[in-house]
Amino acid sequence: MSPQSVYLSPSEHPEREAAVVSYSPQHSVPSREQALHALYEAAELEHCLMCTYLYAAFSLKTSVDEGLTAAQVEIVTRWKRSILQVAMEEMGHLMSVWNITVALGGAPRVGRVNFPLDPGYLPAGVVVKLAPFNMATLQHFIYLERPADSTEPDGEGFEPERHFVRGVGAPRITPMGLDYDTVGAFYQTLANGLRRLAEMHGEQGAMCGNPALQLSSEDVSLPGAKRVICLKTALAAFEAIITQGEGAQHNAENSHYQRFSAIRTEYQTVLAADPTFRPAFPAATNPVLRRPPRPEGRVWLEDPDAIATVDLANSAYGLMQRLLAYTYSVPANDPDKMLSLDLAIGLMRALTPLAERAARLPAGPSNPECHAGVTFITLRDPSPLPPGASAHRFFRERFQQLVEAAERLCVSGDPRTVVAASILSKLSQNAEQGFDLSTPWPGTSAKPVALTVVATPTTPASVQDGIETVEGEKLTLLYEARRCIHARFCVTGAPDVFLANVQGPWLYPDAMDVERLVDIAHACPSGAIQYRRRDGRPDEPPPPVNLAAMREAGPYAFRGDLRLNGTSIGFRATLCRCGASKNKPFCDGSHHDAGFTASGEPPTGPSTEALAVRDGPLQIDPQRDGPLRVRGNLELISGTGRMVARVTSAYLCRCGQSQNKPFCDGSHAKVGFTADGA
């Protein structure tokens, strides 16, 4: 994208300051090329805003050891959570723009230019650069997110280098940049152009792209992740972006403008009470990893530890871009789509501790007054790789390189680096399992891992990996205590096999007819009781219908061919939905002590259409600090068995706070829910 700019002094031709506010003064209908060009700018803008918000959040301090009081730590932690939530919503905006791009028949622009953006790349009033959190940076965020009628000034130090207009006054078929004062006005212009495009070509002709390439809320838990299938859904996406953040009215509840303004008010109050309050590290403004050809306004990093940390963070960020682009190149029914999306999200989690570590390291001797910071260097071309085995090999190799670099960094013993290395190692394993090299199309999912028990004649109980095993004549009985929710079907249905409240041996698999004992095992909702037949009869089969029942004020009871983070866990499991379990993702009964309340009889939802297939593998992937992501054919039922919804992909609440149970509504971010992805 190479917008042409006309540089003017403030006194020259003032009438031209607002002359170009649409695609062209004499072009009432944009071409598809012009529409895609504008959408590419929208994607880059959302992408850049997300990075600047993340950079500021990563610079914030987190403990009293870093010069804050305990009360200030609580305040700054709340600010960080709010800024990160805004950044995630910008990611949702970006996904909306990508979906609209696909709907118009284009390929999403995943890349962007490097920071800071040169004048002319965006309108003069939209200055984008990396800067640590302080009052000036916060005011800049408020200015960027301001409503159209706002008089908010820009932050100090964020003034444009010069005043200019980018457009031209004569018709052009070459796509060029638009001028706009606010981001909301930009989206209004895009929406108007899309309406005119649909009027010219017809709605079906305008929205001619393949919707299966898009991402939706079934794939990722982000606001704005909705498929664009018509003009109405495209315009709704634009309106949601405007209302949620850019261009929202002053009274728009929970808008980005309102949230940043609330932080400013509290910031001023804390400063008034303590003028020495410094909530963030002095991270560099516009750090760069190599000697810049244009050094003005940039900080060249020289400290070896900082360089190695930022180098790894940037590499993870670049691989994330490649994976996101790849996600949009394969259709919804291809397992590569979900795997690449999962890995991309995982890389953002690995990036966070590395970026926080960078903000705590010195920039180098040439800039002793400031610290380093992740530079968010983007790839020269993050276009999607050709789908198939070659892409699989590329991703597997690249993950291994990141793991090796992370292991070298871990020598310092820094806990943030160790966390990042652990995340990258797990992601690399998932890539190795999921990206198959033997067949070019499609990729295959990781194979389930079966429990292996050495079969011997009747023996005393043995315990391995928390699983108690007893060999009977016709059946091997297994009990996994950490999954037990004490439903008592075993001790009440087979009291001679399962001896309650005794010291020593308590499992006697030969004390009951084997077929009856098998039925008792099948009744165990948690999967704590499993078995292996020794009489030549088949082991427990997967159920004919995958089910997830909601227990009143209790957990989810899943039945199906269950895969937890890619590993087989049998056909029965009870997973926490109150958020209080100490054994997540499994239920441990904490809902009783926590006073959790949630109906086991939620209303029947809109997703009631019969599934073509009702069984098959059911993938359950707990999201870090977020919901349970479930993929596969699944019927959600009430505690009494009534059908609530039928889905093939869903995000189920596990923080206990959603107002749309059993589905996630984003409340986990608002309440600060924490849980790992295991």
TrEMBL record:
<dbReference type="InterPro" id="IPR012347">
    <property type="entry name" value="Ferritin-like"/>
</dbReference>
<protein>
    <recommendedName>
        <fullName>Iron-binding zinc finger CDGSH type domain-containing protein</fullName>
    </recommendedName>
</protein>
<feature type="domain" description="Iron-binding zinc finger CDGSH type">
    <location>
        <begin position="637"/>
        <end position="674"/>
    </location>
</feature>
<dbReference type="Pfam" id="PF09360">
    <property type="entry name" value="zf-CDGSH"/>
</dbReference>
<dbReference type="InterPro" id="IPR010693">
    <property type="entry name" value="Divergent_4Fe-4S_mono-cluster"/>
</dbReference>
<keyword id="KW-0001">2Fe-2S</keyword>
<dbReference type="GO" id="GO:0046872">
    <property type="term" value="F:metal ion binding"/>
</dbReference>
<dbReference type="GO" id="GO:0005737">
    <property type="term" value="C:cytoplasm"/>
</dbReference>
<dbReference type="InterPro" id="IPR052950">
    <property type="entry name" value="CISD"/>
</dbReference>
<keyword id="KW-0408">Iron</keyword>
<dbReference type="Pfam" id="PF06902">
    <property type="entry name" value="Fer4_19"/>
</dbReference>
<dbReference type="Pfam" id="PF12902">
    <property type="entry name" value="Ferritin-like"/>
</dbReference>
<dbReference type="InterPro" id="IPR026820">
    <property type="entry name" value="VioB/RebD_dom"/>
</dbReference>
<keyword id="KW-0411">Iron-sulfur</keyword>
<dbReference type="InterPro" id="IPR018967">
    <property type="entry name" value="FeS-contain_CDGSH-typ"/>
</dbReference>
<keyword id="KW-0479">Metal-binding</keyword>
<dbReference type="GO" id="GO:0051537">
    <property type="term" value="F:2 iron, 2 sulfur cluster binding"/>
</dbReference>
<dbReference type="InterPro" id="IPR042216">
    <property type="entry name" value="MitoNEET_CISD"/>
</dbReference>
<feature type="domain" description="Iron-binding zinc finger CDGSH type">
    <location>
        <begin position="553"/>
        <end position="597"/>
    </location>
</feature>
